[in-house]
């Protein structure tokens, strides 16, 4: 059996099954119970400081914040 035929057979069977299981797993993980609050927070994060600007460094990750001077 040549390499192409072997890889084609693998892709048609086990790889397809693996990718299908990954897709179903991601789908179930996204729509799991209790994740609605997290998704709503992420979806509305761009509107947090709509009325006034945030304090300097308030929305930055800790690694991105400027170092405090002593």
Break the fold down into its secondary structure elements and pairings.
Layout: H1 3-30, H2 36-43
Could you characterize the architecture of this molecule?
- It holds the Pfam family FixQ.
- This is Cbb3-type cytochrome c oxidase subunit 3.
- The protein is mostly helical and 70 residues long.
- The chain has a domain of 29 residues.
- It contains 2 helices and no strands.
- The termini are far apart.
What attributes characterize this protein structure?
elongated, 51% helix, single chain, 70 residues, mainly alpha
Q: Please report the distance between the alpha carbons of the first and last residues.
A: 71 Å
Give the low-pLDDT segments. none
Overall form: elongated
Instruction: Report the biggest beta sheet as strand number plus sense, adding barrel if it closes.
Output: none
Protein name: Cbb3-type cytochrome c oxidase subunit 3
Keywords: Membrane, Transmembrane, Transmembrane helix
InterPro entries: Cbb3-typ_cyt_oxidase_comp
């Amino acid at each position: 059996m040549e390499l192409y035929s072997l890889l084609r057979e693998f892709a048609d069977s086990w790889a397809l099954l693996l990718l299908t299981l990954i897709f179903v797993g991601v789908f179930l993980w996204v729509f799991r119970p209790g994740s609605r609050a997290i998704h709503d927070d992420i979806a509305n994060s761009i509107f947090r400081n709509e009325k006034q600007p945030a304090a300097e460094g308030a929305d930055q990750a800790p690694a991105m914040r400027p170092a405090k001077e002593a």
